[in-house]
Amino acid sequence: MDLLADSREVIRNDGLLLLQQLTKSNAAIQKIVAFENAFERLLDIITEEGSSDGGIVVEDCLLLLLNLLKNNSSNQNFFKEGSYIQRMKPWFEVGDDNSGWSAQKVTNLHLMLQLVRVMVSPVNSPGATASCQKSMYQCGLLQQLCTILMATGVPADILTETINTVSEVIRGSQVNQDYFASVNAPSNPPRPAIVVLLMSMVNERQPFVLRCAVLYCFQCFLYKNQKGQGEIVATLLPSTIDANSISAGQLLCGGLFSADSLSNWCAAVALAHSLQDNLTQKEQLLRVQLATSLGKPPVSLLQQCTNILSQGSKVQTRVGLLMLLCTWISNCPIAVTHFLHNQENVPFLTAQISENLGEDERLVQGLCALLLGICIYYNDNSLENYTKEKLKQLIEKRIGKENFVEKLGFITKHELYSRAAQKPQPVFPSPEQMLFDHEFTKLVKELEGMITKAVHKSSEEEKKEEEVKKTLEQHDNIVTQYKELIREQDAQIQELKEQVASMSSQNEQMQTTVTQQLSQIQQHKDQYNILKLKLGKENQSQSNSQGDGSQMNGLQTEEITQLREELEELRRQHALLQTQLGDKDALINTLVSECLCTESMCVFVCWGELEALRSQVQSQSAEINQMKTERQELLRRAEAGEEGKSSSQSRAELEQQLASATSTVAILQTEKAKLQTEVQESKKEQDDLLMLLADQDQKIHSLKLRLKDLGETVDKLSVLHYFSKYHNQSDQVGDPLVLIVWK
Question: What does the record list as coiled-coil region(s) (predicted)?
Fold first, then answer.
């Protein structure tokens, strides 16, 4: 490893050759070399030597990298985690002038493409492959490869390997597949890259390896890509056909019915991949109609495929069409019904299977047996002449069950079947050996055992199986319903638990609020009692003053009588105010009683208005006390018989004081009228409060029922409803008088 950092190039290059030999097929040494920072050093050397334009040293570095990464998941993960994939992008930045590529550059670029494929090979674990595919898209490596794919002047072997590399970079990755579908070739007008590639695939003048690479690219584009499958099938439907442009569907149909058997096979396999594991597209493809010749009515694509089969074309063509038909109608009862609806299909299949033909035809016989078996297994018995039971009877009489199973088993015994089953990429030594598709081998493996059992079963066994199947389906439906019910109940229980927790929290908050409000109520009651006590003392002092007045003498009788009348008027006004205050207290008590009767929670009375009334009452009481004081002073003067003042002067003073008292009375009467108006407004507001009480009572009742439904023990209910309307109008916190009623 130290030799790779030697400043002498000869020693460094010999170190590269030595490491190549040491790392061949030795995973332990591969890991040691990778963790000794080999990736960083090798990539630096490749960059220093000119990347793809470099010489033999670049080739040696790439060969060593291949040794370290191929079939070594640990080193691959280390390479990806070290962000070395991003450093591969500059390798593929080719210029516009692609003429005159040197042999060394072709070799270097070929090895670089192999390195990319090693990281995204289908044999790697799905998670590791998907992660590398994502990194290649994010760093722009996929975009760079697509640029080479559509460039002109690129050597054929580099173009072929680039197509294979792009295939594996997009295989099974929805994001990468979507990007590839959006790539256009730099033509006028621009055409999708898929269409340009398919034109090469169905062109018999193109190299065989290039056509295989295009087929592999198309298969990888459709692998686990239902969106892409739908887009391809849509180009065949009558409503989407554009006569002015060439579509993928038109190219596939053209290749399917051309004179070149390899084009027939490639187009049939490509169409089969458009239907792979996609029931919707299998049903959509039944709508495709083809115009075979002028003056004749169009026929369905399904019928045209069977027509070509019956014409006895080449083995490769018939194998391709049979693979397409088996993929199409498998797991699709509607397609099976369409196939059986043609009265010539079943006789043709039975005739093909029952004949004793040569070795080359045995594969076709096996595929015909597979197709007939699919018609039995996926038959919904909608056609009376071709029910499951009648088809099995036909096999038993015309072919024989054992002979049928033997012909069916010949498919998996074929040498080319085993070769195709090994890996997804179609690699064949010659066009004649291109007979099986990798995905089709999976379908045969899945269906062979099921068809064999279906053919050997009697009608009674099938009925029993149907009954068992229906019973299991019913049980499954019941279990599914119970599962859904349990999920709903779990959701409801969880929701109820959350509600209970929320209500418990609210209850605690309400208890705290109730305690605070009870304290405030007690304070208001104390203030109210003090106010009543003050008013009682004022009334008592007024009574004492009147008693003293009855003992006065020395004043003129008329003046004393007049003063007494004025005082009586003031007393009546004061009593009236006291009565109004009593009425207000009675109204409050009435509201409290109504709350107790209806089990209401709380009543709010505007304390600010009551305080205003009390303030006015106190003000008037002060004025009354002042007048009492003045009257006592007059009485004192009368009793003392003040000297130096004549009776006329005394009378003048009395008249002046009387005028002042009369003015005060007028003012008090005005204030009395205002107070009466305010009392009426207060009564109106209290009526509104009573209506709110009724609403609150209804809410309390519903809350009580809800808590009982939730399973809570309802010992007592306390709900505080604070009217923000009155709270916002109050100048002080806690002004509203709150009455809490416990059940």
Answer: 479-527, 553-580, 610-685
